[in-house]
């Protein structure tokens, strides 16, 4: 089974399904989202959507946007339960009991994990209540945004937190962005830290990550920002046919999610 480990709700959803079909991808982890760059038709509209993205990854949120993203995610997963694996986001600005309620909401919907979390830069420690709640629910996987504005210090904080909750698979998205070397080093030292490989800046980073932690690297596209066809081709370019490639393209994630 080939699984895209990182994607966001598309508008319209059937365009996303067509991308998965083209890439030969069986299923995709799906996150809710406020920005929709795929809706953009020109530079001005793309800048508007990217403005929402920048606000989101900097830790900004609005309750209305949060609930809209949940509704879109619910609808997409309900329409294509055979293709999408729902992950629910948690509002890190809520008190611990509110975070517990968010994680309970994720479980009740039948979603398989938490993400993609976007703590403010320098505030990765705010993820800890989510990890605690995920551990209480049997070790739900948790994804955290890894590209800018996430810092190398944030990645180190996440690794420390992961070691406190060894039953929770903690996934760093986008291979840690510009801090990919730090992310690989931390993953080598942290048995429950996983690296999702989308939007890597250079192919050497993907090759090195798979070489160093082959059992904890995950093929992902970050669609619509990335493309499943190209993301799969990148993994296949740096691996040989066989067990390691199969793990990266979906075997490891299928095991984590009990698929």
Structure summarized in a few sentences:
It contains ten helices and eight strands. The protein has helices at 13-23, 43-57, 63-79, 96-108, 128-136, 152-164, 180-189, 203-212, 228-238, 243-256, and strands at 3-8, 27-31, 84-88, 113-117, 142-144, 170-172, 193-196, 217-218.
| 3D shape | globular
What is the architecture at the second tier of CATH? Alpha-Beta Barrel
Radius of gyration: 17 Å
Spatial order of strands in the largest sheet: 1-2-3-4-5-6-7-8
End-to-end distance? 9 Å
Uncertain stretches of 5 or more adjacent residues: none
What value does the average pLDDT take?
A: 92
Helix content: 40-55%
CATH level-1 class: Alpha Beta
Query: How many domains?
Result: 1
The fold-level CATH name is TIM Barrel
Number of helices: 10
Derived from helix and strand composition plus strand pairing, the structural class reads alpha/beta
User: How big a fraction of the residues is strand?
Assistant: 5-15%
Largest sheet: 8 strands, parallel
Instruction: Give the oligomer, counting copies of the same chain as homo and different chains as hetero.
Output: single chain
């Amino acid at each position: 089974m080939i699984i895209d480990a990182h994607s966001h709700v598309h508008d319209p959803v059937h365009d996303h399904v067509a991308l998965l079909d083209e890439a030969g991808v069986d299923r995709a982890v799906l996150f809710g989202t406020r920005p929709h760059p795929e809706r953009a038709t020109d530079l001005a509209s793309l800048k508007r959507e990217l403005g929402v993205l920048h606000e989101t990854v900097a830790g900004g949120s609005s309750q209305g946007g949060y609930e809209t993203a949940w509704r879109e995610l619910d609808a997409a997963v309900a329409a294509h339960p055979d293709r999408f694996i729902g992950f629910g986001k948690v509002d890190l600005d809520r008190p611990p009991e509110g975070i517990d309620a968010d994680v309970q909401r994720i479980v009740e919907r039948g979603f398989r994990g938490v993400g993609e979390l976007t703590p403010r830069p320098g505030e990765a420690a705010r993820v800890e209540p989510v990890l605690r709640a995920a551990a209480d629910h049997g070790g739900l996987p948790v994804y955290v945004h890894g590209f800018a504005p996430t810092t190398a210090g944030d990645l180190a904080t996440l690794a420390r937190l992961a070691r406190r909750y060894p039953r929770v698979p903690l996934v760093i998205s986008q291979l840690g962005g510009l801090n990919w070397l730090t992310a690989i080093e931390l993953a080598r030292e942290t048995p429950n830290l996983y690296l999702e490989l989308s939007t890597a800046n250079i192919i050497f980073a993907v090759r090195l990550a798979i070489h160093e932690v082959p059992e904890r690297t995950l093929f992902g596209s970050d669609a619509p920002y990335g493309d499943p066809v190209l993301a799969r081709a990148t993994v296949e370019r740096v691996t040989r046919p066989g067990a390691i490639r199969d793990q990266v393209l979906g075997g490891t994630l299928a095991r984590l999610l009990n698929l």
